[in-house]
Amino acid sequence: MSLQATMPATSAAATADAMDAAWLAAQQRLRWRRRIMPLFGGAALLFVWWALVAVFQVRPFIAPSPEVVAITFYQKFGMLMQNLWPTAIEAVCGFLLGNFAAITLATVFVHRKAVDEAFFPIAVLINSIPVVAKAPILVLLMGNGLSPKIAIAGIIVFFPTLVNMVRGLEAVNPQAMELMHVLSATKWEVFMKLRLQTSLPFLFSALKIAASTAVVGAIVGEWIGSQEGIGALIIQATYNFDSALLYATVLCGSFFSILFFLTIRLIERFVVRWQPEGAP
Amino acid sequence: MAAALDMAQDAPPGGVTAAPLALDCRDVTVRFMSERRAVTALEGVSLSLESGSFLTLLGPSGCGKSTLLRVVADIVQPSAGSVSVLGRTPAQARQNRDIGFVFQDASLLPWRNAIDNVRLPLEVGGRRELPAGAMRPQDLLDLVGLSGWEKALPHELSGGMRQRVAIARALLGGPRLLLMDEPFGALDEITRDRLNEELLRIWAETGTTIIFVTHSIYEAAFLGQKVLMLAARPGRVRELVAVSLPEPRRLAVRESPEFVALAARLRALLETC
Ligand SMILES: Nc1ncnc2c1ncn2[C@@H]1O[C@H](COP(=O)(O)OP(=O)(O)OP(=O)(O)O)[C@@H](O)[C@H]1O
Ligand SMILES: [Mg+2]
User: Fold this and answer.
1) What is the interface size between A and B, counted as CB pairs within 8 Å?
2) What pTM does this model have?
3) Which residues form the domain of A43?
4) Alpha carbon A204 to chain centroid distance?
5) Where does the signal sequence lie (chain B) (predicted)?
6) Residues A14 and A144 in one domain
7) Which residues of A touch B153 (CB under 8 A)?
8) How far is CA B19 from the centre of its chain?
9) Using an 8 Å Cβ cutoff, are A183 and B120 in contact?
10) B188 contacts in chain A (CB < 8 Å)
C-alpha cells in the first residue's frame, strides 16, 4: 500500500485473471456440491425407509412405504393444499404479530430499564408454560376460528425474538456509542443509525427459528379444536389409521416450513449485506 | 500549520483579547466509583494548549490518558476542576462540533461504506450542513489517500485504511480540536510511520489543534510540539516536555542526534512514572 492507497487492480496481469477464474470456478463447484449433497442424503434415507418397510413387511396402517406416500400426496394434492392454506395464514399472521410485538417490546426494554425489570420476569414465566397448556386456554378465550391459532403461533415466536432483539439492540460497540455522543446524536438517531443495524443479525437468527416454530404453533392450535388445517388433518388421519395420508400431511407441513425458512433467509441475505462482526 | 500558529500569536497589540486557548484544564480530577473500589484516574491535572498546536500524551498504561481525552470530549464529567475548550464548556464545544474524536479501533459502522461513514456526522446531531468552503466527504477521503475506495465496506479495508476513514470522519466539518486516542496502536510499524507523516501533513493543511495519545516514545516525539508525560496511580502530570525538532518533520528526523537524545530523555522519564 503506497501513500496514495492502491486502487483495486484494473489492469491485472493475465495470470492473475486466470487464477481468479480458477478460484471462482472452484467456489462454484463447492456451492453446487453443497446444494446437491443433501439430495443424495435424502435419497439414501428414502431407500432405507423403503427397504425396512419391504423387508419387515410392516403393515401399511403402521408405516406406509415411501411410494405409497408419494402417490397419496399426488392424488390428494388438492385436499392437502386446501388444508395447508389456513395453517399457512395462521403461521404467517402469528409470525408477523408475535415478532412485531417482540421487536416493539425489546425497543421499549432497551430504552426504559424499569419496564424491562417489571416485565421481563413475567415474559419468562409465560414462556415457561408449555404450548400444549397455553393452547386450550386461548381456544377457550378466543373461540374456534383462526384467531386462537394465530395467537398461539404469535406467542410461540414472541419470546425467542424478544430475547434476541434485546441482546442485539444492546450489542452496540461502546466506542460507537461514544462516537454518537461526541456527535451529539439524539437517542432516536442512535437507535436508527446504530442500534437497529447492530441488532439485525441477532434478529434474523431469531426470525429463522420463528419461521418453523410459527408453523408448529399453528398446527398445535389446530389440534385443540379445528375442522380444517394441517393439524386437523393430522388428527383425522391418525384416528382413521390412514397412515399414508398422515405422512403426506406431515410432508406438506414441513415443505411449507422449509419454504418459510428459506424466504426469511433470502430476506436476510438482502438486508444484512455487511460481514456480521459478533453475529450469533 | 504556520497560518494557524500565527493566528494564535496574532493577538491584537496590547493583547487584551487573545484567541481563546484550544484547551484550558485547571486542577482536573476524575474519580470512578464502582461497587468494589474507587479509582482516581486523574488528580489535579492542569494544562493549557494554544490553538493550532500538536500535543502528544505519553504515560504508562492506566495513567488516565484516555480519561483526559474523554473529559475534553464531554464523554466523562470531571469530579473536580474546570475544563474549557476554545473558551467554552466541553458540552458546548461538543454541540458546536468543535471536537473531532478518533478512537483506538476505527469504530466504523460496518454496514456503511467508506464515504457514508465519513458522512455520518452530517446525519446526526441535528443534520448539519457543511459550512461553505469546508471540505466535503470526498475531499476528506482524498486527503487521507483513499480516493477510489468510497464504496468499500469496512471489512473490505485494511486496518490502516479503516483508521484513515475514521480520521476523515473526525475531520468532517473542520473541528478545531482533534482528539486521537492511540489511533495507530494496532497497526504495523511501516503503516504507522506512513500515517504519522501523513497526519503531520493533514495537521499542516487543516491547521487544527491535535491532542494525540500514544504508547510509543518515538511517535510522541516525532509528532508532538510538546509531549505531556503523565504518571500513574493517581494519574497526574509528570512533566511537559517541549520538542524543538525542526518543522515540517520527515521520518528521517528520527535518525538525528537531537531526536535520539529526546527519545532517551522521554524513556528515562517514563521509567520514573
Ligand atoms: N469507566 C470507568 N469506570 C471505572 N474505572 C475506569 C473507567 N475508565 C477508566 N477507569 C480507570 O481509570 C484509570 C485510567 O484509565 P484510562 O483508560 O484513562 O488509562 P489510559 O492511560 O488510557 O491507559 P491505556 O494506556 O492502557 O489506554 C484506570 O485505572 C482505569 O481502570
Ligand atoms: Mg487508553
Assistant:
1) 83
2) 0.81
3) 1-57
4) 9
5) none
6) no
7) 273-275
8) 20
9) yes
10) none
By the CB criterion, residues less than 5 angstroms from ion ligand 2 are B 66
A144 in a structural domain: yes
- Ranges of each domain in chain B: 21-98+178-189+209-273
**B80 close to B57: Cβ distance less than 8 angstroms:** no
Question: How many Å apart are CA A84 and CA A100, to the nearest integer?
Answer: 24
A25-67 pLDDT, tens per residue? 998 899 898 889 989 999 999 999 999 988 988 887 888 888 8
Strands B38-49 and B23-33 turn out to be: antiparallel
Mark whether A52 and A73 lie in a shared domain. no
| Domain identity same for A49 and A78 | no
In a domain, A280, yes or no: no
What residues contact B200, with CB distance under 8 A and at least 6 apart?
A: B54, B223, B248, B249
* Cβ separation A189–B191 shorter than 8 A: no
Looking at the structure, do residues A145 and A189 belong to the same domain, yes or no? yes
Distance CA B126, CA B124 (A): 6
| Cβ contact A31:A213 at 8 Å | no
Tally of structural domains, chain A: 2
Contacts of B134 (CB under 8 A, 6+ apart): B173, B174
Answer yes or no: is A278 within a domain.
no
In DSSP terms, B88 is beta-bridged to: B85
Domain match, A82 and A163 both: yes
Is the CB of B76 within 6 Å of ligand 1?
Answer: no
- Give the CATH number for residue A111: 1.10.3720.10
- Contacts by A17-26, CB closer than 8 A, 24 or more apart: none
**Through-space distance between the first and last CA atoms of chain B, rounded to whole angstroms:** 32
Please write the tens of the pLDDT for every residue from A216-252: 999 999 988 788 999 999 999 999 989 999 999 999 9
Residues A260 and A152 in one domain: yes
Residues B5 and B25: their CA atoms lie apart, in Å, by: 20
Q: Hey, what CATH class is B21-98+178-189+209-273 in?
A: alpha beta
Q: Which of B265, B244, B239 is nearest to B46 (CA)?
A: B239
Cβ distance B138 to B149 under 8 Å?
A: no
Nearest ligand by distance to the CA of B216 = 1
